[in-house]
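Minimal example, chain plus 2-acetamido-2-deoxy-beta-D-glucopyranose.
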Amino acid sequence: MKALQIILAIFILALASSSAFASDPSPLQDFCVADPKGSVSVDGSVCKGAKLAQADDFFFSGLHIRKNTSNSVGSAVTPVNFAQIPGLNTLGISMVRIDYAPKGGLNPPHTHPRATEILVVTEGTLHVGFVTSNPDNRLITKVLYPGDAFVFPEGLIHFQYNIGNSHAVAFAGLNSQNPGVITIANAVFGSKPSINANILAKAFNLDAKMVNDIRSSF
Ligand SMILES: *[C@@H]1O[C@H](CO)[C@@H](O)[C@H](O)[C@H]1NC(C)=O
């Protein structure tokens, strides 16, 4: 009985400590406006003096602008993270606007290594989904309409696909000042320098010629 209680206590402690590291670390001061010219390397950016902070350090304009989606995937992202708003430095949050071309605009399968995402559709109709980790690799999907929100858990591969006849728009919040993006196809087939074709052939069950054909488009 005693051993069971100890195991239970360790389990609860482990749960508590893992949830404490579920997003960027909490700030120890009101804010730390990023100083892009700071030369010291820290986990984030060096702060400029608190008294030098201005309203514009916490401001971004442009989320009303529809981006050009005439590209190979038919989507365009407007990022709003600490690179655009230096006042987001250390605050563990950021956002994006995503535009999707009619009939097939795709935000291709990708992951954010440092953030969970919550996405809300404001225009159009999106088929969205994510895949769970090994061993299940279960695909979880939903069709979203304006006003609908959907969550992509941290690190999992996800996508959004415009299945409507009109332009689509979504906004998303992410719990990191710098969520990062790994677009699966680009990382695997478009790395610089290239991953050895035999490695990709084996991993994707292709022959090396097919690997080279796929690579040539990235
Ligand atoms: C959108 O981008 C494409 C490809 O770069 C270009 O040909 C087109 O003129 C652009 N459209 C607008 C409205 O800027």
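The longest strand covers residues 94-100. The chain is about 20% helix and 25% strand.
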